[in-house]
Automatic annotation (TrEMBL), chain B:
Organism of provenance: Methyloceanibacter methanicus
GO biological process annotation, one example: protein maturation
InterPro entries documented for this protein: Hyd_form_HypD, HypD_1, HypD_2_sf
GO-annotated molecular function: 4 iron, 4 sulfur cluster binding; carbon monoxide binding; iron ion binding
Record-given protein name: Hydrogenase maturation factor
Keywords associated with the record: Iron, Metal-binding
Amino acid sequence: MKRQVNIACIVSDDRPAESCVGDWVLVHVGFAMSRIDEKEAAETLKILTELGEAQAEIEAMRLSATEVGRAAS
Amino acid sequence: MKYIDEFRDREKAAALIKEIEALVAEIPMAKERPIHIMEVCGGHTHSIFRYGIEGMLPKEIELVHGPGCPVCVLPMGRVDDCVAIAERPGVIFTTFGDAMRVPGSKKSLMQAKADGADIRMVYSPMDALEIARKNPEREVVFFGLGFETTMPSTALTVLQAEREGIANFSVFCNHITIVPTLKAILESPDLNIDAFIGPGHVSMVIGTAPYEFIASFYKKPMVVSGFEPLDVLQSIWMVLKQIKDGRAEIENQYARVVPDAGNSAAQDAVEKVYELRDFFEWRGLGSIDHSGVKLRAAYARYDAELKFALPNLQVADPAACQCGAVLKGVIKPWQCALFGTACTPETPLGALMVSSEGSCAAYYQYGGIKAQAGAA
C-alpha cells in the first residue's frame, strides 16, 4: 500500500528530511510521529531474551539438583 | 513486520509470565486482595483482549480498563452537534470511521448519512483538507477527536489551511487531554487502583514528564507501554517490581517509540493552535475541568463551533448506563444490567460499547461469556 505521509513532526534542522530515508516511523492518522529507535528496540528485546535464558538456567540447575539427589539416595 | 513480530514472541511471553507469577508471590498485599492495574489507553485495552492477556496473568492481578478511548467518552450532546453540522445544506462533514456509530440522542452519524447528509470517512485530517481544496463551493468540516496523539495532526492541518488560505475548511474540535483526566480518576473517592500502564502514543507526543505527579503526589507507579503483547506483559512486570520494592516512579517500557521529552515539533503545533477549555463534558465521567481544548482566537475562522450555530445541548446518558463505574474500575462490564442485552456493539447505549477500544465492547467480543461464566 502506498500513502502520502506528513513528516513535519520528525524532521528538524539536525535531522533533515533526507535523513529519514530507510527509517522506520510510527504513523498515526497520516502523520509520522516518531522514528523508531533501533537501539532501544534491541535493548528491550535483549532484556526479554536474558529473562528467558536465566529461567532456563535456573530450571536446568533445579533438574540437575534433583538428579544428583536421586543418585545420592 | 519489523518491530512487531519480535514483540509477539511466545517463548518470551512465557518467560515474562513466570517472572510475573514469581513477583506476585513476593507481594504480601496480593494475598489479601487483588492488585488493580489500570491501563489508561484504549489501544492497550484492545491488545489485552485481542491476545487474551488477562487469562495469562495470575488471579491476584486485576486489570482495570481506563477512559482512554476518545470515541467512548464522547457525550451524546456532542454527537448531536456533529449531526446538526452535517445536516446543514452545503456541508461535507468528515470524520474518522470509528466515530460513525457513536449514538447521539436522536441518531448517530451513520444514521444521518443514511438519511442523506454528506458525511465522509477519512483516514487523516489532511484528507479532509484535500476534500476542501477540491470542493471550494462547499463547507468542509473535520471532526477533530482524540487525545494528544491526534491533537498535533489536526493542529498541523489547520496551520496548512492557513498557509494555503483555504477558507472553506473548519474543525469541530473535540480533542481531549490526558493529564486532567488522570487527575480526576486519582481524585475519585471510590478510587481502587494500585498502578497504571501509561499510554504509549500520547506519550510519544507529550513525553513522560507530565505524569510525574502520579508518582510524586499520588505515590502510584506508572509504566508507559507499547502495544504488542510482550510490551504489555513487560510493563505489568515492571509495575509489579515497583510495587514489590515499594517504589512509585514513572518508567518507560516503550523507549523505541517514546523519547522521554516527547515530540517537540508536535508540542509546538499544539501550543500554537489550541487553548484549554474551562471544562469538558465526558460520557460516563461527567464534566472535568481543563480536560478539553479549543482553537485559539487567532484560528477562529477555522473553528466550526464559531462558524455554525450549534445546539450545544447537554444530553444525559441513559439512566441505567453504568459506564462511569466501569471506567473507574468499580464494577466489571458484565456487572452492568444492560451489558449484552440492551447494549451491544451493534446497538450501543453506553459509551464503552461503542468502539473496539471500549472495555465493554472488548469484553463482548472477546471475553464476555467466559467472564460471566467464571463469575457465576
